[in-house]
Amino acid sequence: MIGLFDIYTTLFRTDLAVQFQYRGAMVIWLIGRVIEALVFLSVWTAVAESQGGQAGGFSAGDFAAYYIIMMMMGHLTFTWFMYEFEFRVRSGSFSPLLLQPLHPIHRDIAMNISYKLLTLVVMLPTMFLMVGLFDPTFNTPTWAVWAAVPVVLLAFLMRFFVEWGLALVALWTTRTEAANQVYFAALLFFSGQMAPLALMPEWVQSLAALLPFRWMLAFPTELLLGRLKPDEVLQGLAAQVIWLGLAWGMMGLVWSRGVRRYSAVGS
Fold first, then answer.
1. What is the pLDDT of residue 2?
2. 74: number of CA atoms within 13 Å, CB side?
3. Backbone dihedral angles phi then psi of residue 172, each to the nearest 5 degrees
4. How many CA atoms lie within 13 A of 210 on its CB side?
5. How far apart are CA 192 and CA 218, in angstroms?
6. Which of 139-177 are b and which e, b meaning 16 or more Cβ less than 10 Å from the residue's Cβ?
7. What is the gyration radius of the CA atoms in the chain, in angstroms?
8. Where are the domains of the chain?
9. CA 168, CA 104: separation in Å to the nearest integer?
10. How far apart are CA 137 and CA 106, in angstroms?
11. What are the average pLDDT values for consecutive 10-residue runs of the chain, which has 267 residues?
């Protein structure tokens, strides 16, 4: 464990230095995340105002709070490795990683966390600016704030292992764009990004409860909005733990088989 801690410390320092070299790209990514939240927020605020101030039990202030928190949850949990892996395989940069004694997932975990820590310097002021502009309505009890710590951590780990496991499809085929688009379409629909799940048909809510997407984004967002009871939070934590175990097992299985099938590509 001490050796792994030293490795992560070194990786964090290296990745932070790399991130500073791509400041322009970082700003573009952050702008895109904020714009996405603003688009959904504007649409649902307009819907609420056109229906007398509420839509499905959400007021304009409720929608503002929902999409501000959803924006932060998306930032804290997202990964980009489903696109990165395809490039690694096609360019040949994945082969040297297999020759090193450190599993490639450790590099990606360190890279992901270092990026998020660095960009929080921008995201947090943006969040407070949106709070001032849109006057969101928060009804978050103190216990929910504390409960959100393990919930957000599990959401991050869940999403990371699910998406890292799906990224390994690139070990079979060097073109994974279609699979990525199907996954992110399902994520958009069943995670509450497109609309709060409470506004969706019952069959969608039932299906979302069985799939992992709700537990990645909608669950921590609803918790921080104060819309969940303690027993619902415990049930959600259990679902997160189950999906985390499934994601870990799936990733390990795909990794062991995919590495045996992998053929080096690139120069």
1. 62
2. 23
3. -100, -40
4. 5
5. 5
6. eeeeebeebbeebbebbbbbbbbbbbbbbbbbbeebebe
7. 20
8. 2-261
9. 12
10. 39
11. 74 80 76 88 88 84 94 93 86 84 89 89 90 90 95 96 92 84 93 92 93 96 94 96 95 89 68
CA-based torsion, 63, 68, 70, 71: positive or negative: positive
Start-to-end CA distance of the chain, whole Å, equals: 36
In the prediction, which pLDDT does 15 show? Answer: 81
Q: Which amino acid is at 168?
A: L
**C-alpha 202: how far from its chain's center?**
24
Reported as a single tens digit per residue, the pLDDT across 214-256 is: 999 999 999 999 999 999 999 999 999 999 999 999 999 999 8
- Closest listed residue to residue 192, CA positions, set 73, 82, 43, 87: 73
DSSP three-state, residue 55 = strand
CB-based contact 152:76 (threshold 8 Å): yes
Q: Are 188 and 194 in contact (CB under 8 A)?
A: yes
> How do beta strands 58-59 and 54-55 pair?
antiparallel
In 51-103, alpha helices (H):
60-77, 81-91, 94-99
Q: Is the CA virtual torsion 79, 85, 88, 90 positive or negative? A: negative
Rounded CA gap, 241 and 234, in Å?
Answer: 11
**Residue 55, beta-bridge partner list:** 58
Question: What span, in angstroms and rounded, lies between the C-alpha atoms of 36 and 28?
Answer: 12
pLDDT score recorded for residue 16: 79
User: Mind giving me the DSSP string for 99-148?
Assistant: HSSS-HHHHHHHHHHHHHHHHHHHHHHHHHHHHHHH-------HHHHHHH
